[in-house]
Structure formats: C-alpha cells, structure tokens
From TrEMBL, chain A:
SUPFAM superfamilies the record matches: Sigma2 domain of RNA polymerase sigma factors, Sigma3 and sigma4 domains of RNA polymerase sigma factors
Classification via InterPro entries: RNA_pol_sigma-70-like, RNA_pol_sigma-70_dom, RNA_pol_sigma70_r2, RNA_pol_sigma70_r4_t2, RNA_pol_sigma_r2, RNA_pol_sigma_r3/r4-like, WH-like_DNA-bd_sf
UniProt protein name: RNA polymerase subunit sigma
Domain RNA polymerase sigma factor 70 region 4 type: 131-181
Similarity remark: Belongs to the sigma-70 factor family. ECF subfamily.
RNA polymerase sigma-70 region domain sequence ranges: 26-88
The entry's keywords: Sigma factor, Transcription, Transcription regulation
Naturally occurring in which organism (per UniProt): Pontibacter diazotrophicus
UniProtKB/TrEMBL annotation, chain B:
Protein name: Putative zinc-finger domain-containing protein
One family name in Pfam for this protein: zf-HC2
Domain Putative zinc-finger, chain residue ranges per copy: 21-54
Species of origin: Pontibacter diazotrophicus
Superkingdom as given in the UniProt entry: Bacteria
Amino acid sequence: MSERTGKQLSKEEKDARFEAELLPVLDPLYNFAYRLTLDEDDANDLVQETYLKAYRFFDYFEQGTNAKAWLFRILKNSFINEFRKKSKQPAKVDYSEVEGYYNSEDVEGESGVATTTDMRTESVQDLIGDEVASALNALPVDFRTVIILCDLEGFTYEEMAKILDIPIGTVRSRLHRARNSLKEKLEKYAKSMGYNNNEI
Amino acid sequence: MESKITEVYQNAPVEGKETECEKVSKLLDLVIDGEATSEDQHYFNHHIEDCVTCFESHQKQKLLKGLVSGHLKRVIVPESLALSIKAKIQKTL
Ligand SMILES: [Zn+2]
C-alpha cells in the first residue's frame, strides 16, 4: 500500500517515464501490428490503442521489467478482443493473387529489368523478402504470430507463452506446425526459382 | 518380480538408430531457437556429427529461420505515429 502511494508521480513525471520506457518499442510493435493486420491503417490504430491501454495500466507496470513483452501482450489481446471483430476481413491479402504473380513469367521479367549485376543481386534479395512475406501472410494468424515473435523479434519460449497466454508446450507445438506450414509454402517458390525440393 | 520386469523392459532394443533420430528431430526447434539445455545440445551436436539426415534437417531448419529473420522486410513506422501517441497521452488523465 505504502509502495503505491510512494510511487505517486506527477502527470509530467509519469508521461516522461512512459515515453522513455515504452516508446522505444514503437518500431517492433508497429511491425507486429502490421504483420497481424496486414494493413498500415489498421496497424496504426492498433498501436495507438495499445499505447493508450498501456498508459491506463502504467501503474501496474513494474519499472525495469520487460516492456517489450508487456506491450506485445497488450497488443495481441487488443487484436483478439476488439480489433479482429471490428475489421471485416482479418486477412486482407489474397494469397492466390500473390502466388499467381510469382508463379507466372513475371518473375523472370522483373529480374530481367535489372541489367547490372549489382542491381540483379539486390532484386533477388527483394524477391526473397517479398516471397517470405507473402508465404508468411498466407499462414493462419496464430502461426504467423509465433513465427514473428520467435524468428523476427527473438522472444524466448517463456516470453511467448506470457504474451500469448498459452503453456510453453503449446508454444513449441504451434511453432513447429507453423514452420512446417511456412516451409511448404516456400518450397513452391524454391521450385519456381530452380532449387530442388531439398534445398529448403 | 517387479525388478525383473523393469530389467526386461530396459533390455528391450528401444534405443535403435531410428529412435535416436526421432529424439534429435524433437530437439531441432529447441536447438535453433537457443532453448535446448546444454545436455540436449550436446546430445544433438554429437548425433549430427555422424548422422547426415539429421545434419541436413538442421541445416534446412536454420535456413528457414534465417529467411524470416534475415529477409523479411521491416515496415517503416509512419512519422506521425509517435507524435499522435504523445498527444493523446497528454490529453489523458
Ligand atoms: Zn539422425
């Protein structure tokens, strides 16, 4: 009790602490929101909502603890509880369209535009990135989430379990299934790029 | 009697090459995510020195993780976002 009153801060102090501790997470948080919603405006709204919630509950946030995991958890819950219901279509990318594009002759046409070797290397890098993105976006949101949290953001299994409110065993099995699924999608691409099935 | 049963069970040929590979494949995600215990890590490393199949699946799984961590482009945060968050917070009591 006395600890709570001892922590009473002025609005200015609270705001300053809030900004210093939580705003550095903005970049990963926005990226996470974007990977969940697949829409920039929606990501924007979701991130703002997350920060406002975090502000309301900031008294319960223990200074020096994992701010990133805390914000990711709030964002994930907002996405599930409110956002997903609000938005008409949770997955706005029609994978078949993207797939159709990359499987067509356009892939060669595109890299053909880059005439210098440097540019060609760069465009191949871009193509890989784009293909990873569309394969990932085509996964169910639960699968997409664990891959982003683990492989892109480097959260531990324990942190992921807390963010997602699921046991570590479920984190592991979900991640495993998500990777198999991603592998399957990327294999199609690998074939179209002339790699054989065993390369990925 | 009980000890005899245990003995028989323990001597059963369950530790074949196949189950060892199965154990290693279950460790695969833990290993590439840095979540394996040092004991498991040691077991894993030792096994893939001799087993080409498991060595290759390890390579593939590392490659897959690398595709996401190394090639997935990060989206750029709109400049206005931080400002509008700060503005909203200042208005909140
Ligand atoms: Zn093996």
